[in-house]
Amino acid sequence: MEERSLRIVGTDKNFFNKITSTLTRILIPTKIGINGMLISIKRNSLIKAFENFIQDDNYENNELEKKYDSAYEAYLDSLDKYVMDSIYKKVRNGSASEFEKNAMARYYEVTSLKENEFIEYKYRKQKYLLELDYEGIKASGKQKVIEKYNKFYISKMDSLYKSILKNYSIKVADTTNKYDSTKEWIYTKIFHTLEDYIQNILSLKLDTNYDENLKNIANEYERYESYTIGKLDTKDNIEKNMILLGISRKLFTHSLPLIVAEQCYEKLLKDARTLVQDTKIAAKREKVYGMLINLIEDYNVKLLSTKVYWETPKQREEYKAFWNKYKEISKLKETDFIEYVKQKEILFIKNDIKKIKDSKIDYSKILIYYKRKLVDYGAMKELKNSYKSEGNYSKIKKREVA
Length: 402
Fold this sequence. Notes:
Elements: H1 15-55, H2 63-92, H3 98-111, H4 118-140, H5 143-173, H6 184-208, H7 218-225, H8 234-251, H9 258-278, H10 282-303, H11 313-330, H12 337-356, H13 364-376, E1 380-387, E2 396-401
Antiparallel strand pairs: 1-2
Helix pairs in contact: 1-2, 2-3, 3-4, 4-5, 5-6, 6-8, 7-8, 8-9, 8-10, 9-10, 11-12, 12-13
């Protein structure tokens, strides 16, 4: 796809600039009309090539695939030309609508990735151009065109999102100096991309009954929707990202592999523990603590239970013991739900204490909080020696796990 550089030039109001501006205003409607016709022709050719390609049973026949790829490239080129010849010039001369101004701002945002993040740029530019045309198709109200385009759009967007996430996964897993896997921005981009997919593509799939297999995540999607209304605080954002990760384990198992999802969960766990420690008001701290317990369960049940390869045999055996205990406690769910909740919480607390007691992060406050919970549940004995905790936590006694 041909690339065109963008340059912002001065706008001195001399005689020649006035003439140029006037001519541009006259010619832009013609440009838009020509580009619109060209896009429509290229789009129709693309849809036809796509339908022929997906209906072909002869997988060794590459001719249809080549025609589809060629039609897709020509279609993208026509969209890129529309941005350069029409939207850019309308923004320059001040006649652009808010939609066009936003479209141009997004274009600059995408092209800014080209120099340092070319792989991401390559996929995000395609995603941007497809989204731009899709908005125009929806605005046209032509239902038949929308229905035909939806199949191609969902298929191609699935591929692009997977490629973007796979690119992030490589950066997270990379241990070289080029990419620091602890950088917050990588995790932020992963969660943002997952949310973007769920809002714009998964919702479209569910609305169009595109994939019957998606019914098993409908409940999780409804949970996510509850976090799209109103302003979210830190606790809400952690819970929302927890749901996004849960959905990703069913949609992006290859492009967001287990080793990367595990690091994303650990990032959320770190944030949740820190939030418990930093929350001063007791009632709010209890709510945050409840969120942390749910996150620990998600991490262990949805992710670690599917883990096959462990770093050491010791880690595998420790998790096996935890999992057996969890399954045993789960039997109480039907007969004594209150006891089930209590025993499960005790199991999670003890397991998390083992993980964080030797951490480089200062978790002293949450360790005190955990031990106080265990004493309340009768799962820890009190010793005579006492010490005072920091912050607003009350004076408590040293305890040991029963």
